[in-house]
């Protein structure tokens, strides 16, 4: 069995992904972001088209269960723009959900994840290609442990990668202790998000040493003053021997952050971040981050 990336229009040869935005959102709704929802399919299409025009080939959407994924829209958006899309199952922090929804999923969360990975999201027919979960600020609460346990169970059933939101970039080692230690998920199947938001090179190197992937994915968040450090951090990790662990994403989570609405959006990765990374990493290093690494990180020999 050969490895494949599970796209919204079917499984993909990893070699065909092209340049990958390894963490972003086309649709996202949360009670924590009222009035800033990503829920306009027309604007999503324009954003993808702008990304494609800048040289983008694939977007991995980390929007999980219950947050307005609109999975039924994704195949048409992919076909119209020529950009491959990967959808997510999983569950975010508890604050993004109602108590009723959380209670309703208390006994079948892992089964839900497996079903969305193997059969499809709702009636859309779109199968998810990864599992998204989240930690807290410097800690893992009971909700995080519950969702990560379900994610690990779904991983063991399918082989799907697990992508993790780290609040302000913290808690990565606790996540690795739980997922890769207690729950026995291979580290190379774990993607640690937002580590650029806590520019601790010692922690980043320790996380990379585990074999997990490190996603530097904050450029759409203008209030994060750590973005300017990102190329130098990635260069330091590459110099330390971890160039094959690095990924890049935009993490566009609000309507105003889209490029077509006046924000940086997905194209910013390629218009502005890519030249700085090429200076820091060299052409070969940049190719690894944007093309080779994500092709491995999201490819699975699907069970």
From TrEMBL:
Modified residues (N6-carboxylysine): 132
Cofactor binding remark: Binds 2 divalent metal cations per subunit.
Keyword line: Hydrolase, Metal-binding
Binding-site list for Zn(2+) 1: 23, 25, 132, 251
One example GO MF annotation: hydrolase activity
Family under the similarity heading: Belongs to the metallo-dependent hydrolases superfamily. Phosphotriesterase family.
PANTHER family attached to this UniProt entry: PHOSPHOTRIESTERASE-RELATED, PHOSPHOTRIESTERASE-RELATED PROTEIN
Protein name, entry field: Phosphotriesterase
Organism: Streptomyces xanthii
């Amino acid at each position: 069995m050969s490895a494949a990336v599970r796209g919204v229009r079917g499984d993909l040869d990893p070699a065909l992904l092209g340049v990958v935005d390894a963490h972003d959102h086309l649709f996202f709704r949360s009670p924590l972001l009222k009035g800033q929802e990503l829920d306009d399919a027309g604007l999503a299409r324009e954003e993808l088209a702008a990304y494609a025009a800048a040289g983008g080939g694939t977007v991995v959407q980390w929007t999980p269960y219950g947050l307005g994924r609109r999975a039924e829209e994704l195949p048409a958006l992919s076909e119209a723009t020529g950009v491959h899309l990967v959808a997510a199952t999983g569950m975010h922090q508890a604050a993004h959900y109602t108590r009723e929804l959380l209670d309703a999923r208390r006994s079948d969360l892992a089964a839900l994840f497996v079903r969305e990975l193997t059969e499809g999201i709702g009636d859309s027919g779109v199968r998810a290609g990864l599992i998204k979960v989240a930690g807290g600020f410097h800690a893992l609460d009971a909700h995080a442990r519950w969702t990560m346990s379900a994610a690990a169970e779904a991983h063991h059933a399918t082989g799907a990668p697990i992508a993790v939101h780290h609040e302000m970039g913290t808690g990565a080692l606790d996540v690795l202790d739980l997922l890769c230690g207690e729950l026995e998920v291979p580290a190379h199947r774990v993607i640690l998000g937002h580590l650029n938001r806590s520019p601790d090179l010692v922690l980043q190197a320790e996380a990379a040493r585990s074999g997990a992937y490190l996603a530097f994915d904050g450029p759409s968040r203008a209030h994060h003053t750590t973005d300017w450090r990102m190329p130098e951090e990635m260069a330091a990790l590459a110099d330390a021997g971890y160039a094959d662990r690095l990924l890049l994403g935009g993490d566009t989570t609000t309507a105003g952050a889209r490029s077509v609405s006046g924000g940086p959006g997905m194209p910013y990765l390629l218009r502005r971040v890519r030249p700085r990374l090429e200076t820091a990493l060299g052409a070969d290093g940049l190719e690894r981050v944007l093309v080779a690494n994500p092709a491995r990180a999201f490819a699975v020999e699907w069970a």
